Amino acid sequence: FLAKQACRNIICDFAVVISIILCSILANIVFKNIPTETMNVPDSFAPTFQCCDSSCHSSFPLDCPDQEEAWGRRPWLVDLGDTGGKPWVPFIAAGSAMFAFFVVFFDNGITWHLINHPSNKLTHGNAYNYDTIV
Fold first, then answer.
1. Which SS3 state, helix, strand or coil, does residue 51 take?
2. InterPro entries from the xrefs (predicted)?
3. Cα 114 from chain centre
4. Helix (H), strand (E), coil (C) string for 66-120
């Protein structure tokens, strides 16, 4: 039964996907009388934050309970110039981002030197430096 290596490799590679599909089929066909919780998915693909007014600083319906319907949805693109009256926020964020970059950069370099030490006797394939390109 499934003695060929190719069949075993396919099942091994797609085991999670196969199990999700099989369990979904079982839940919807065999056990359809048992209530199961499903994920709430909106009918349209749009931002979920609904605004009370055109400034879009307040959330509908929590911040404006007297309003019957939302003004609209938050736009897809974020205004990077709107710091909410706090002009120091981009500089603090840039400093934190530079610190994180240096930590990851040095971690990658130190790991590379430890792994490629001559005592490990590693040989490298054709795709050796692809991690740097990506």
1. strand
2. HCO3_transpt-like_TM_dom, HCO3_transpt_euk
3. 31
4. CCCCCCEECCCCCCCCCCCCCCCHHHHHHHHHHHHHHHHHHHHHHHHHHHCCHHH
Is the pTM higher than 0.85? no
Instruction: State the CB neighbour count (10 A cutoff) for residue 96.
Output: 10
The confidence score (pLDDT) of residue 1 equals: 60
Query: Is the confidence at residue 2, as pLDDT, over 70?
Result: no
Which residue has tokens 């797609």? 14
Lowest mean pLDDT among 25-39, 63-77, 79-93, 118-132: 118-132
Q: pLDDT tens-digit profile of 57-81?
A: 888 888 888 888 888 888 888 888 8
Distances (CA, A) of 22 to 10, 15, 16, 25, 29: 16, 10, 10, 5, 10
> Residues 67, 52: contact at Cβ < 8 Å?
yes
Identify the bridge partners of residue 51 per DSSP, sorted by sequence position: 59, 72
